[in-house]
Amino acid sequence: QVVLAAGSLSGRLAGVPDDVLPPVRPVKGQVLRLSVPKPYAPFLSRTVRAVVRGSHLYLVPRENGELVVGATSEELGWDTTVTAGGVYELLRDAHELVPGITELPLTETRAGLRPASPDNAPLLGPTRLPGLLLATGHYRNGVLLTPVTGDVMAHALTTGELPDEARPFTPRRFTGPSPVPPTQSFTEQPA
């Protein structure tokens, strides 16, 4: 058995039949790292999540004095360019929540690609190809869903069944039902 968990590249894996490749698209996310000098510490004592001007924003303080500000969500294909506009929007929205943030040194800017499914929910479990399972498509929640995804995949690999909580996220929700070959032991119930 093989678990395909290649993030935004999951839908581009060579050698997998086209009708089995997961419908995953890349969604660009820009993030900033700021340094919180000692006189300001602790600048924030916990993670702050908000929606500002319709965009999701988070501020995550780190023990090393760093403050992570993220993240944009941009449907731009495989582009990982950090843009002035992305940095501006993140700083502008963060400033609206915590005005003093614009006084902090900007130490890093990055852009990455999130794996998103057509409904932005994870793809978990068996595919139409016997022995191939998916664990991808988590969109903005990959890090948050890592523990439960690991548990779901461990259960599927050891028992041959998807746990109840994972059934709504079967990859087959996009391909429709198909006969399960007798050699495949997954007993998947319709969601």
- CATH uppermost class of the largest domain: Alpha Beta
Distance between the termini: 23 Å
Mean pLDDT: 90
| Portion in strands | 25-35%
Strand order of the largest sheet: 3-4-5-2-6
Rg calc: 20 Å
Number of domains: 2
Query: Which residues sit in consecutive blocks of at least 5 with pLDDT less than 50?
Result: 178-191
Secondary structure layout plus pairing:
Layout: E1 2-4, E2 25-35, E3 48-52, E4 55-61, E5 66-70, H1 84-97, E6 106-116, E7 123-126, E8 132-136, H2 142-159
Parallel strand pairs: 1-8
Antiparallel strand pairs: 2-5, 2-6, 3-4, 4-5, 7-8
Outline the structure in words:
The chain has 191 residues and is an alpha+beta fold. The protein has two domains: 79 residues, no CATH class; 91 residues, D-Amino Acid Oxidase, Chain A, domain 2. Helix content is 17%, strand content 27%. The chain has two helices and eight strands; from the N terminus they run βββββαβββα. It has a five-stranded antiparallel sheet with strand order 3-4-5-2-6, with helices on one face. Strands 1-8-7 form a three-stranded mixed sheet, covered by helices on one side. It is elongated, with a radius of gyration of 20 Å.
